[in-house]
Amino acid sequence: MKRINVVGSSGSGKSTFSRQLAEALACPYLEMDAMFWKANWQGTSDEEFYTKLEKALNQETWVLDGNYNRTRTIKWAKVDTVIWIDYSLLRTVYQAIKRALYRSITKQELWENTGNVETVRKSFFSKDSMILWTLTNYQKIRSRYLNVFADPQYQHINFIRISSPKMAKAYLKNIAESKP
């Protein structure tokens, strides 16, 4: 396991898991959202995003956090493992709400030098709400990964499905204990 992509619905805990996995493996943690988002919630063009992603993945080892389905051919060209954080809808929405409240209260900048912060209004009362996005896209994302995991085109990739926080904790503990 040298090049890992952690995927899952928004709010599933991809970032937390990815950071912990990268630390356990002593390899770079790469966050797709940090590559995509600019100041004032402006996204990058696909051309710029793909260039940033290709440059970031031009390393021997990494843990990449994020879906961005349109980037699959780039990020999975070198990937050897894909870990799917597949918690229940209830658990995922709970985590998304908890995260949104925490970030709204603390005004934590999400990605360095962007000034982007979550607000109660954006999180709970906006059509751009990540909570709403999670609710409306959860099943679509699950279906996508169920299909991808079964697709012979990707048989060279080691797919791991983690379906509970307990399973995630055990997986990370196993990685940490198996290090020389």
TrEMBL record:
Q: Per its UniProt entry, which superkingdom is the organism in? A: Bacteria
Note the Pfam families from the entry: AAA_33
**Which segments of the protein form a coiled coil according to its record?**
none
Q: Cite the SUPFAM superfamilies for this sequence.
A: P-loop containing nucleoside triphosphate hydrolases
- Transmembrane domains' residue ranges: none
What is the name of this protein? AAA family ATPase
Source species: Marinomonas sargassi
